[in-house]
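hiii, so i know i said id send this last week but things got crazy w the move. better late than never?? heres the sequnce for the chain we talked about at the cafe, plus the structure i predicted for it. fair warning i was half asleep when i ran it
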Amino acid sequence: MTTVLVLNGEPPPASQLHQWSARGKVYAADGGALCCLEHGIRPETVIGDFDSLNLSLIPDEWTVIHRPDQNATDFQKALSILPDEPRELVVLGGLGVRLDHTLTNLLIAGPILPQTRLQFAGTEETLIRVTPDTPFEERLPVGETLSLLPLQSVTGVSTTGLKWNLSDQSMGPGGQLGQSNLIQGPVSVRVTSGWIWVWIRTPRTS
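okay and structure toks below
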């Protein structure tokens, strides 16, 4: 089952929120609850310090956890209440609005259990985490751009289906990066240790 977490970044459109909520349980962090409320989605739980959302706006029947701890972000607080070892975790509202929030979210999410399939789905862009347990394999439009974002050291990066493929490459800050590659066929991205983000344009939905 898919676990969906709605944060307070760029709000997902109604179609995207409903698409993912139909596949599993939804949780919301702070202002992400407002997006759920506007689109008729009731989260399992809403958690946060509520500096972005007035608690009085949340329906009385919703489950709310007020956690004002400033040593953790609302994203970290929400992760702490999710079901153990989610098979797939989709984060909505985790990109855009503020670059510092986006980068912090990606750094927080990177070390999540490596067997969890994890992605940040935005309105224009999607980031999918690749670990040794969760390779990326997908058919994507030929000619589109794909980037590899190694926010920490990662080894054994191998790809197929790109114009400039990698074979057992080490990547990371200060070393090999992977911006703006071109898709030429079915794509696969694998690593042997660490984690890396695959950036693609968000597929259009009806």
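btw The chain has two domains: 2-123, 136-201. thought thatd interest u
miss u guys!!
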